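Hi there. Long-time user, first ticket. I'm pasting a complex I've been working with (about 1019 residues overall). I'd like to know whether the download I got is complete or cut off, because the file seemed smaller than I expected. Thanks.
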Amino acid sequence: MLLSIEHVRKAYPGQRPVLQDVSLALDHGETLALTGESGSGKSTLLNLAGALDAFDSGEITLDGKALSALDDTGRADLRRDRVALVFQQFNLIPSLTVGQNLAFHARLGGRLDKAWLSELSHRLGLADLHDRYPENLSGGQQQRVAIGRALAARPKLLLADEPTGNLDENASREVLDLMLELVRETGAALLLVTHSVEIANRLDRRAHLAGGKIT
Amino acid sequence: MIAPVVQALASHWRRHEVQLATLLIGIALATALWSAVQAINAEARASYARADAQLSVGQFDELHAPGGFIPLELYVKLRRAGWQVVAVLEGPFRVDDRTLRVIGVDLLSYPALPAISEARTGPEPLGLTEILTAPGRIFARPDLAPLLANHPELPPLIETTAVPPDLILTDIGVAEKLLSKRGQISRLVILPDQPAGLPPLADLAPELERVRPSEAVDTAQLANSFHLNLSAFGLLAFAVGLFIVHGTVGLAMAQRRGMFRTLRALGVPLALLIRMVLCELTAIALVGGFLGLVLGYFLAGALLPDVAATLRGLYGAPMEGHVVLRPLWVGAGLAMAVGGTLLASGQSMWRLSKLPLLDAPGLQAWRTGMTSPLRTAKYGGALIATGTATLMLGDGLAAGFVMLAGLLVGAALLLPALLALFLTGFERRANGPVAQWVWADMRAQLPGLSLALMALLLALATNIGVGTMVSSFRLTFIGWLDQRLTSELYLTARDDQQGAEIAEWLRPRSDAVLPIRRVELRHETGPLFLYGIVDDPTYRQNWPLIASAPDVWDRVAAGEAVLINEQLARRANLWTGDRLTIAPDWSLEIAGVYSDYGNPTGQALVAMQQFDLHVPGAPNRRFGIRTDPAKATELAQALRDRFDLPPQAVIHQAAIKAQSLEIFENTFVVTSALNILTLGISGFAILTSLLTLWTQRLPQVAPVWALGLTRAQLARLELLRSVLLAALTACLALPLGLILAWILLAIINVEAFGWRLPMHLFPFDWVVLLALTLLAAAVAAAIPALRLNRLPPSDLLRVFANER
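Hi, the file is complete. Here it is re-exported in full:
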């Protein structure tokens, strides 16, 4: 099992718990859609799975490592080496070119494969845009760079939070097709947060969050 | 992992060259002024050290022959009596087209001069015999070697840096030949360790005058205050520069919050990120510091001639006109640059260390994290209150400086709240929608501009404060010189007998002869110089009294009262109506107090009859001579011819005044230059703030543009906004500057020197300063305004696209 989430609870100070007794599992190469209404805790669960945030109780195990036992450096190592993230807001580094952004995560983890990067770049339609800066790209292009950056590092787990939320219908379909195709080729597992049933139906499995619980 | 992080961090600066340039210039300017001042101070101190070693400065008591040279026989007599005195002969010496100074010291009696010790212990040791016996040796700095090499008639030259520039040091025997003054001695230096039971000097050499270091103007004290003044300015400029650094680093950090978050999300540990940012800032500080050192080196070189002239006048120490690159200076400058940058970045680094991984990125979060103007104002008020309380509860120079620091920093912290108050008021009174928007927009921009405006406030207040002090000082000093130096000529006779002869000769040839006679007494507050004066209209009409009883001059002339100088009055807390105990059996009522700038010791004036009665036998060799100014030169020459007096025995009042004024003007040339430079830096701070805030301006102006204002109108409003904010700051700086001037004049000056200067106001100077400020603000706003004017509409539309 690549990702195991067991009885996890998360609450923010002064607020009702966002997640209560949530359990979920994801195997190598498997894709899972996490759906739910706004405020249901989808993004929070994704952040917990990506070691971006800490949970109150329960346990999350990623590739055999229990996240509760990791300090800040251990979590950072995990994010660098095994996980990749695609955000709704793209979160590219604005001062780096497209080419530099694409290679960035792989270089951080010391796993830059130039041939793979070049192939990715071509497949994502970014080959001619390497010298541009993110601000000069459309939303769809920026999200393709974000996906490329994530997959260039050949992560075991790709976490995507509403990756097409900021895109129009055509761009959304195009980006999703590419992402799913590349994820399957690389053998990475995918946990994708979406509120779109249509997108969720294209993944292997689907889990629905409501009121902080998996239903 | 480090390489991509470095790449990501550095990429920000590649994309924000103006921001990087701003940061580097801020660090460079801060370091430059501070380092320049330190270089000047270091050169001056090195000069003092060299000069002190030449027995040329009043560190020891000296014996002078009033109006002439000391005969060799007298020197021998004193040595035989056991007095450890050293003979010094000095005078100007012409070599080709240059005038050098020759100092001949009796090296047999005092071989401990550094230049001599150096020659005796150097790589080619020289025996004292070789130095003393014919042809002897001369010691001078290496730069004089080519000049002196053309004169084979001179003794062999020993090159040394242990003597001041433009000076030849040698044995007194050699100096006699060079100066053609056989058997003559300029002065005798009394060495500090004297054997016990010596016969009194007054018996052995009654014709010589013992001059104590305290009798002259305490030049060391003045020179120290001059250096303190320079250092304070250097520190102020450094602080203003750090405002730029603080603002720029803060914005750069805010703009990179998204990047930091992404880096952390991608697996860069926080501790590593902080270390990398610290390394980045240190590297930038080193580059900026190096640029600052280069700038500072040239700045010090440009300012040094004026400083050298000042210190020559104040201290009598020859000072070299070029800066020497000292490793300590370079190291200290770079350390200041790095330390200052890290200090100015402290708040940003703290925020970075507390940056939540999942916090919303962007400038808004950064801005909301800023301290509110009201809270800042509370800190400011507390600082002012602390400063005031320190001054009220404590006393002395330290309390004065605490008050100054509290007032300046406190006022700077109060500024944003005060400006917000004014802008809200203007906004409420505004009629048109555009005017309302302009005032509201200015208020909204305050958080981003407040640091630059604080820097401007400090620079302006210092400018007004120091300017008012200097101009008040100048006005008072000129008036005082006119009052004190009323006699057209000042004469020093060789001895009392010649003095009496000259006075007799002068009587029918002048309007008045005013004896200047004094004795040194002791008072509980220190040395007290008592002067006897004759009753003459010169004193009644001109003497600079700052407090007096009715019929003051009649009472002094009648021997019923005494006048004292301000220093004694303040030190002993004795004022008009009190009694001054001059001797155990002699006290007089104080009828008046007079100002006496530049003199650290106490003085008292009594009628000549009283003086003769209580201290008979005081020397009577010095006189002030009143005559028609047109005939003064003729009379001076007649005196020299008739009594065979050396040129320096008869001095023109105009020459003394001119010399005094020159020293004064030179003293403040550097201050004025630093004043203008500090103002320039604060102008630059506004420019950098406006440029760095540029990205935040578009969302503000785009809707107004969309609603119907042209880009040209918006550009003009940008210019107006900057000028209005600078004008408001200048208005607030005026009272602050005047309070600063008052503290400098009424507290710092009194504590440091013992005299208080009257404060004069110079509204014309304020108008000039305001005009300069508005010009600086307009120039600073010109670049963002031009950018706005030329901004393609597509860029403005992008704002709406991003907002959506």
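A couple of notes from our side: The two ends of chain A are 21 Å apart (CA to CA). The domain at 3-214 of chain A is CATH 3.40.50.300 (Rossmann fold).
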